[in-house]
Specification:
mainly alpha, about 85% helix, globular
């Protein structure tokens, strides 16, 4: 993901992101969580690709990849609380960026 982000290979980045999430859900061993997250993540990945292709409020893919790195480190150290904390932080950051992108575009359209 980091290599794809640094070299601006957006499609490769989104594919690697989806694969990473799929692996994490698989590791969890909870088939229901995996199924629910697949339903959510595929549309979100498509939305991200649309933002990247149209270059509207471009995402910083390097920051996004690095937020995953912190989560992976917590998972690899077998620290559920740290993983939970890092996941919450990553989701909040992603949502803030998403809101900024969507509402920022709406605000500009009405100006």
């Amino acid at each position: 993901m980091l290599d794809a982000a640094r070299t601006k290979q957006n499609a490769v980045f989104v594919k690697a992101d989806l694969l990473l999430h799929s692996k994490i859900w698989q590791i969890s061993g909870n088939e229901y969580v995996g199924a629910a997250l697949r339903r959510i993540n595929h549309p979100l990945s498509a939305f991200v690709m649309i933002r990247l292709v149209t270059k509207r409020n471009a995402l910083d893919l390097t920051d996004d990849a690095q937020s995953h790195t912190a989560l992976l480190e917590a998972i690899m150290t077998n620290d559920p609380q740290a993983a939970c904390d890092r996941f919450d932080t990553a989701v909040q950051d992603w949502l803030a960026n998403l809101r900024s992108g969507v509402f920022g575009q709406l605000g500009q359209a009405t100006d």
